[in-house]
Amino acid sequence: MITRRKLLKNLSAVPVVGGLVGTGMVSACEFSKTDSGAGTEEATRNFFEELGVTPVINAGVTMTFLSGSLMRPEVMAAINSTAHDFANMYQLQDKVGEKIAEMLNVEAAMVTSGAACAMVLGTAATITGMDLKKRRQLPDLLDPRPEVIMQKSHRYVFDQAIPTAGAKIVEVDGAEEMEAAINENTVMALYFNAASGPILHEEFVAIAKRHNVPTFIDAAADVPPKENLFKFQKIGFDLITFSGGKMIRGPQSAGLLFGRKDLIEAAKFNHSPHEAPIGRPMKVNKEEIFGMYAALKAYLELDHEKEWQDWLDRIERIKTKITTIETVSGETHVSPGPANAFPSMLVSWDEEKVKMSPKEVSDALKAENPSIVTNIRRGRDGAADRLSVGVVLLKPEQVDYVAERLADVLSKAV
Ligand SMILES: *Cc1c(COP(=O)(O)O)cnc(C)c1O
Fold first, then answer.
1. Can you tell me which atom of ligand 1 is nearest the CA of 254?
2. Which ligand 1 atom is the nearest neighbour of the CA of 255?
3. Ligand 1 lining (C-beta closer than 6 Å)
4. Domain extents for the chain?
5. Which of 109, 298, 381, 408 could form a disulfide with 258 if both were Cys (CB 3.0 to 4.6 A apart)?
6. Given ligand 1 and candidates 160, 191, 218, 241, which is best to mutate, with the most ligand atoms within 8 Å of its CB?
7. Model pTM?
8. CA distance linking residue 326 with residue 348, whole number of Å
9. Tell me, what's the pLDDT at 382?
10. Atom 13 of ligand 1 has which residue's CA nearest to it?
């Protein structure tokens, strides 16, 4: 039995998540005491050790092969507090989508299983609309094949999402070619935000709009700054995607797709929980949908200036520790973006004095347990390579640990 006191105590631990009301709240709390494992053996069970998986300290950037980012506490709270009750997935996606759309000043939004999924769903949406027969056909039987326009300089690994949805990529080079390439089979024009020209955002949107072709922009890794979450709808893109599991620090298998309402509806129509569409294998579970919402809300409410200052302070702390070693110097480097636009530290030294290359130092740190992952920044035009130490994904207590380990490896090479 749960007493009122216990209930209130538990309620205060439950984050305010849309949709968690009424009797659902009580049962969620009742279960969460045991299921969350707090204070039980489960809480201390070390799955990494049990399975022989090496824990990684990520002194780099968000990378999918390193499990992306660590979910915010708000996300974990949302996942834990919603895991104990069923929900109608159509309703959940609609309600969360409405809230996200409101937060981002767009007509509509949905949670996908990541930006790559959003690209498949967005493409599918522009092909099928709400046509059930077409939805069943994807990705086959389409003759002539739907076409998606991309700039030649924007081609990248993730554009395989387009043929995955049944469309063919038509490459263009420059505005004139784009105009000429648009025909009755064109369903969409895709812009990769981190690529450069020759057609810039505004012109790209203007050309597509003249021909009534929906535009899609992939800005998956392009926060910070937070403003980027609002930028592309203002320019006029019809569909926009961001990863959920990068710097927004939501679930790794979640992402955002937002923009024009009819297209978002068609994207949902091509997604789970519908049973047959192209997006069915790209399901997002209930907890992650709640979690993505909580992540975005927390991210938007964050004091970004303070966070940025904290990152700079972390660099200074590590720098102070390692620059006591002869010839070692550290430089704060802010990546201009659009992806990974945050500070990291570039470390260099005289290899006559510290007899290891940046690659050897990086390898030595990687071989430790816990493994510390750093990156190498290649020197251009004959300049030496440097060790790049990222700070934005470190847990607070890992900052000094990374500094110590790095100092130790470097000083042993003197
Ligand atoms: C990470 C990334 C993706 C894929 O995003 P997921 O959320 O992992 O599916 C797509 N495009 C770009 C530019 C990315 O950086």
1. 7
2. 7
3. 64, 114-116, 158, 194, 218, 220-221, 243, 245, 255, 339
4. 1-70+303-414, 86-301
5. 109
6. 218
7. 0.89
8. 11
9. 86
10. 220
Instruction: Show the 3-state SS of 43-78.
Output: HHCCHHHHHCCCCEEECCCCEHHHCECCCCHHHHHH
Distance 68 CA to ligand 1 centre (A): 10
Sequence-ordered strand ranges (E) for 226-282: 239-243, 255-259
DSSP letter at 154 equals: G
Could you tell me if 386 and 347 are in contact, meaning their C-beta atoms sit under 8 angstroms apart? yes
CA of 140 to the centre of ligand 1 (A): 25
Which of helix, strand or coil describes residue 253?
coil
What is the 115 CA–ligand 1 centroid distance (Å)? Answer: 5
pLDDT of residue 14: 41
Protein residue with least CA distance to atom 2, ligand 1 = 220
pLDDT digits (tens, 9 = 90+) for 215-255: 999 999 999 999 999 999 999 999 999 999 999 999 999 99
Computed over every residue of the chain, the mean pLDDT equals 91
Q: What is the CATH number of domain 86-301?
A: 3.40.640.10
Structure tokens at 414: 């003197």
Q: Three-state SS for 212?
A: coil
Residue located via tokens 């002869």: 326
* Beta-ladder partners of 191: 217
Asked whether this chain's domains 1-70+303-414 and 86-301 adopt the same fold, the reply is no
Ligand 1 atom nearest to CA at 339 = 15
| 56: pLDDT strictly greater than 80 | yes
**CA dist., res. 128 & res. 136, Å (int):** 9
Cis preceding linkage at 273, omega within 30: yes
Structure tokens at 86: 């069923």
Assigned CATH topology for domain 1-70+303-414 = Aspartate Aminotransferase, domain 1 (3.90.1150)
CA distances from 310 to 87, 295, 342 (A): 39, 20, 12
Q: Whose CA is nearest to atom 8 of ligand 1?
A: 114
Cis peptide upstream of residue 144 (ω within 30 degrees of 0): yes
Q: Measured from the CA of 118, which atom of ligand 1 is nearest?
A: 9
